[in-house]
Amino acid sequence: MLFNQIIGQDHIKKHLQVSAKNGRIPHAQLFVGKEGSGTLPMAIAYAQFLLCNFSDAADICNLKCDKLQHPDLHFAFPVTANENVKKHPVSSLFLEDWRTFITTQPYGSLFNWLHHIGVENKQGIIGVDEAEDVVKKLKLKSYEGGFKVMIIWMAEKMNIAAANKLLKLIEEPPSKTVFLLITEHEEQIINTIKSRCQALHFPTLSEQDIANALVVNHQAEDKEAAKIAHQAEGNFNKALHLFYDNSSDLIFEEWFITWIRTAFKAKGNAAVVQQLVKWSEIIAKSGRETQKRFLEYCLQFFRQALLLNYKSTNLVFIETKSGFDLSKFAPFVHSGNILDIEQELNQAIYHIERNGNAKIILLDLSMKLTRFLHKKEVKV
Fold first, then answer.
1. Residue 287 predicted with pLDDT over 80
2. 379 assigned to some structural domain
3. Same domain, 146 and 77
4. Residue 171 belongs to a domain
5. Domain identity same for 71 and 148
6. Which of 73, 210, 303, 353 has a 20 to 30 A CA-CA distance from 64?
7. pLDDT at position 37, please?
8. Residues paired with residue 79 on neighbouring β-strands, in sequence order
9. How far apart are CA 109 and CA 309, in angstroms?
């Protein structure tokens, strides 16, 4: 993957190329950016630049990198057991799937990756087996005599054992070894790892960059591309999702509407509370990654309702597909309850990530929502 294939982020491209040409190549870098901002494609392009720009056989080198088959380009990413890999899953056992995924979804999310390998109902991790595999690979000499690059995608998914195993290697790597750690949640990486990396923060993509990419690479009409770019919130993966397939958002919308209507009627009504129990059971049967994505969708829905309530209509982009009238719901989301709602949704995501009982978490969230929706705004 070449720098000119990456959407936007021109200042980061220039910084990486200029610093490399001047010999300023940190041995460990942390690429921090939200989903769809291009951290993974940028890391691959940077790795290809390091491996091939200083190579005597640049054409052959670029061909190997384009196929993600360069012997000095290594990857580590979250995995878990599936039908093909029953025990001790490590990235090297998923390389064919990984190459296909990068080819088809270079801006894809962790959820997309887990869905790609058929384990969307599980959570992927980077465990100690993976860390041992990384140590073994990087102890070997460079195959072509130049750099060795290790890209660790979703580095926040490293467990403590894996992080401690890699700590010494990241601090003092072998000669010409470069670590590129990629994360969406910098705060979830242990401080001893973060302190040994030079951080590079990626902004979200501009609407213009997303719209141009949809028109040029996906043959979208200008008007449709502009609309999707506005809805995507700087996330190109979301833009592609909106352009090609929004079926999961329709399911989320149905879950959300059922939830808030039931929660609104549940205050002081035991029969309706039983409906919330059933709703919680239904959502709890989906995978944890799906539950997290749904709760993030809920956060976005509440924020859009708040903006509409306070007449910031130019910032409202959500469009319901089931006939639900957002304007009638918006007055129930205001300064008196939005902070409580956001806090509880984020807490629910936190506990689901840590393998809490989803049914209990969702039911607790639902009972709190019944109070929040009836909370009055205090006028100043």
1. no
2. no
3. yes
4. yes
5. yes
6. 210
7. 94
8. 125
9. 31
DSSP state for residue 320 in the 8-state scheme? -
Same domain, 194 and 212: no
Tens of pLDDT, residue by residue over 33-84, are: 999 999 999 999 999 999 988 777 888 888 999 899 999 999 999 998 888 8
Q: Check whether residue 253 and residue 340 sit in a common domain.
A: yes
* Distinct helix (H) and strand (E) counts, the chain: 17, 5
Residue carrying structure tokens 């039931």: 262
Question: And the tokens for 355?
Answer: 């393998």
What is the rounded distance in angstroms from the CA atom of residue 235 to the CA atom of residue 207? Answer: 9
DSSP 176-240: TEEEEEEES-GGGS-HHHHTTSEEEEPPPPPHHHHHHHHHHHH---HHHHHHHHHHTTT-HHHHH
- Across the chain, mean pLDDT equals 89
Q: What is the pTM of this model?
A: 0.76
Please indicate, yes or no, if residue 380 is contained in any of the structural domains. Answer: no
CB burial of residue 10 (10 Å; 0-12, 13-18, 19+): exposed
Residue 211's domain comprises 207-245
Specify the pLDDT at position 156.
94
SS3 79: strand
Report the C-alpha gap between 107 and 272 in whole angstroms.
42
Question: What is the C-alpha to C-alpha distance for residues 44 and 149, in angstroms, rounded to an integer?
Answer: 9
Tell whether 27 and 78 lie within a shared domain. Answer: yes
Overall number of domains in the chain: 3
Query: Tens digits of per-residue pLDDT, 317-333?
Result: 777 777 788 888 999 99
What is the residue whose two structure tokens read 């982020």?
9
Does residue 270 register a pLDDT over 80? no
